[in-house]
Please model this.
Amino acid sequence: MKLSLNWLKKYIDHGLTPEELSTRMTMAGLEVEHVERVGEDIVFEIEVTPNRPDCLSVLGLAREISAIVDRDLVLPDVSDQDDKGEIDISIENPTDCGRYIGTIVTGVKVKPFSAEHSEFLQSLGLKQLSNVVDVTNFVLFEYGQPLHAFDLDRLEGKKIIVRRARAGEKIVTLDGVERKLDESILVVADERRPVAIAGIMGGMDTAVTSATKNILLEAASFELGVIRRASRKLALTSDSCYRFERGTAWRTIETASARATDLVLSEAGGTLYARRDFVAQKPEISRREIVVCSDDISNLIGADLDLTRSRRILKRLGCMVPQEERHLTVIPPHFRNDIQIKQDVIEEIARIIGYDNLPMTIPQVPSTNISVNKKEEGVIRSTNETLVGLGFNEIITYALTGRTALEKANYTGPLISLKNPMSTEQEVMKPTALVGMLSVASGNINRGQKDLRLFELGKRYLPGREMWSLSLLMGGKYSDDWRVSEKRTLDFFDLKGALQSVLGKLGVSGVVFSAQQDDALESGQSAQLSINGQYAGRIGRVRDEVLARFDIKKSRLYFAELDLDGVLMTAEPLRKFLELNDFPSMTRDLSLAVRDVSFDAITSECMRLGAGLLQKINFVELYSGDKMDAGFRGYVFSLVYQSKERTLTDEEVNTLNEKIAARLTEIFHIKRR
Amino acid sequence: MPLDIEKIKIDLRRATAEAADDKMLETVRLGFLGKKGIVAQMYVGLATALPEEKKLIGKEANEIRQLAEELIAERKIFLGQQNKQSNAIDVTLPGIVSPLGTRHLIHQTMDEICDVFERMGFVIQRGPEIEREFYNFSALNIPLDHPSRDSFDTFYLDEADPLTPGRNLLLRSHTSPGQVRVMQKFKPPLAVIIPGKVYRPDALDASHSFMFHQIEGLLVGKQVTFSDLKGLLTTFCQKYFGEDVVMRFRPHFFPFTEPSAEVDIQSNIFKGRAGKWLEILGCGMVHPKVFEAAGYPAGEYCGLAFGMGVERIAMLKHGIGDIRTFVENDVRFLKQY
Model:
C-alpha cells in the first residue's frame, strides 16, 4: 500500500518528521518497507498484513497514526444519499455479490481532474485519465473501497446484472487485452454482454471517454474468494482486486459511493439522476462487546497497562469504549472484523504502545513431561557423526521428483503424486533418494569432482508411508595417499564397510546382506539388507545404463539405502561392559578353495563348530589367481581362539582347528589349500 | 721380534678411517682388540719377552689398546651420525589426511539453533511432512477460505486424508502443525522445538524454493506471558548471533498467535548489512483457538510460539546469495563447512 504524506496531511496533523513517522508506523505493525521522494511529496510503501484490509486506504492509515500520536482525525464531509429514481440492478447469486450501489449522474463534463486531487494520485504513480475516472481512483485510495464508472449510454438496456460469465464469453478489459471468461469468473454485465470483470477491471466498450455524458457509478461488495481465484486464473490484478481479495467493509460502500458522487458533481457537474442501494445478502456480523480487565492484560502481557491510556488508544482506533473504572468494554468498529476476542483488544493496545516499550522477563522453562524420542534423535545424531568421521559429505536433495527421472533409474514401484505440481520435474514424492543423489553426483563429476562420498539422511515416501532413510553414494579414488603408487578405486566393500560402521556404532546386530537382483543396481553386485528377516535396505553398484542416463560416464558409483525404521527397533546405543579377557589368544590360518558357498555360510559354520573357544574369524585374503581350479576361489581365514578360563594349549587348538577344517570340507564340498 | 709400533698405529688409524659401516668397524675392532687381535698378541709376546723389554711392550700394548678404543668409539659416533642422515625424511612433505566429512550447512545451522534452545530446556520433537489439512490449517485458526489454502500456496497430494472424507493430504507449508500434534500428545507444561522440511509451490529463484527448512518453538504453561516471549527470544538471539545483537519486536499478524510479532535484528556478523534491520523470525502468544483445537480446556493455559526459516538465517550468517546453492550440493561448497 502506497501512502502519500501530503495526502495524509488532509486528515491528520501528526507533527512527525517522515523518519519518525516511518519508525512509529513500523513499530505499530504497519511496516514501512520503502520511502520515496516524488516531487514535493514523500511516498511510503507499507506492508499491510492480511488481517488489516482497513489499512489499505489513506483514511485507514490516518486513523492508525491518530492513535499512534494521540491526535484527532479529520474525516471528509460526505453528504447523505437516499435511493431515488429507478436503476435496473439484478444479482444472480447473493453470495458472489452481497450489495451493489448504482448511482447515475447525468450531464457530466469529462475533463482533467482538479490540480489538488490529481497531485496525490500522481504521487502514487497513477495515470491521470479524466475527472470521472480519477474520482473513482481517488476514493478507492481514500476509503479503500473500489469503485467503477460506466458510460451509461453504452450499457445495453441500461441494465446491471452481476452474474458468472458464460463459457465462451469474452471481454476486452481497460488495458486493451481480450480475455476469455468462464463460469468461475464473476462479471458485471448489461443486457447482452459482460461489461466488467467484477472487482478486477472494467471493459473497454463501456469505459468513460471524453464523449461521455451520463455515467453509472458502481460501489459493490464482491465475495473475496471468487475475486481472488479469478485474478489468479486470469493472471490479472489491480488496485480494486487487491482490496476485494482482502475484504472490504460493508458500511464503507455507502460512504465511498456518496463521497464519489459528491466529488463527481463538484468536479464534472451534472445532476444526480438516480441512486439504488441493492442489498442481495447482508453479511452476518455479530458485533459483541469484549470485556477486558487489568488481569487479562497482565496475564497476557506480563505487565499492567494503564487503562485510561488503553481506552484512549482504542477510541482513536475507532472502538466504542464507555467510561468505566475497573475494566474496558470494547465494541470494535464495523471495519475491524479482526478484533474478536480479548487477546485482539490487548494486542491493539500493546502494539500502539509499542512492543519494545513492554517489559522483558526470562521465562522459567518448565521441566516438561515430554518423553523425548531418544532413539530417533540418537540414531540421527550417531549416524551423522559416524559418516562425517568416515569422510562422507552430507547432501540435501528435493523431496519432490519427476516420473521421468525415476524411469531413468528404472524405478517402477508405487508413488505418491501431487495434485497440483508446479512442473513434471516435481510431480511425485521421492520413493528413493537414488535419483536425487545421482543428479548431485552427475553435477559434481561433470564439474571435475570425481571422488565422491555422499550421504543423505532424510525421508523417502511410499503410498501411506513417510519413512526415515539413510542413503549413501560413493565412487572415485580410495585415498590421496602419495605413498601409494597405484591408487585404488572405491568399491562395494568400501560402501559395505561404511554401512557396517554406521550399524556397529548404533549397536545394531544381525544385519544380513544377501545377493539380490535390483532394477537400478548391477546384477551380481547388489545385495539386500535385512534385520530379523525384515527388509532393511539395499546396496550395490549402480548400473552403467542408469549412470549413462544421468550423464555420468566412466565413473563407477556405489549406492546404499538403509531404512531406519527397522534399525530404530533394534538399535542398542547403551552398551553393557564386556569383561576384558587377559588369557592369551592363539591364531590359526585356514586356507580354503571354495565354490558355491558364501563367506557368511562358512564363518557361521565355523563359529558353531568352534563354540566356546573360537572367538573371532578374520578374513585375510581372497585369492582368485590361475593356481585355482576353475570355479573355485581361495579364501584365507584367520581363526582366533581364546578361552575365558584358562590358557589354551597348542595341542587342543590344533585339534579343534583341524576338526573345523575337516567338517567344512565335508559339509560344503570344498577343499583345503 | 720387535714390533713396529708406529706402523701399527698407522694401520689402526687407516683401518678405522676406512670402516664404512658398523660391520667393517667391528672387523677392525676384532683385529686389534679381539681375543686374537694385535693387542692380545702383544700381551702373549709379553710372556716370553726379556725382563727389560717387558716394561716397554706392556706400555706399547696399553697405548695401542687405548688408541684403538678411542678411534673406534669416535668412528662409531661418526658412522651413527652418517647413518642417521641417510634415514632422514623431508618433514615438510604433506601428511596423509583422512578427510573428515561434513554435515550439510542447513543441518549444521538447525543443530546450532536447536542446541541453544535445548540448553534452555526445550526438547526436540518431529512431525510428519505429509500432513492433514486439519493440522496445517484448521487447528491453527486458518479459515477454510484463507488464500494460503489455495493450490497456489500449498501442495496437495493425490491421496485422500483417511480421517477427513473429501479432503486430501498435503505437504506441510510450515512447521506449525507440529504445535497442535505435540499439544494433543502431551499435557502442559511443555517446551518443544520442531525442526523440519516444509513445502510451498514457489517458483525457484535466488530467494525462493518449493522446499525449505523451518524450526518451530512452543512453550506452554500456566503463566507464560508476552514479556517471557521477548525475554526468551532475546536470549536466543544473543546466544546465537552474539551479545551485541540489536533487536526489535515489530507487531505482525499470524492467525495462530495473538498478539503476534516479527523480530528484526542488526548484527555485525552480517557483512555489508550494517545498520539494516533483518527480519529473522515470527512469534506470538498462542491463540486460544489453537488450544481449543488441541483439546485443552478454555482459559487454562497460555503459551508462546515462534518459528524461523533456516535457509534465511544460514544465508545471512554466511553471506550466501542464492538459496539454490543448498540443493546444488557442489562438493566444493559442502567441504567449506
Observations:
- Chain A touches chain B through 90 residues (CB under 8 Å).
- The mean pLDDT of chain A is 93.
- Chain A has 19 helices and 29 strands.
- The CA atoms of residues 200 and 236 of chain A lie 8 Å apart.
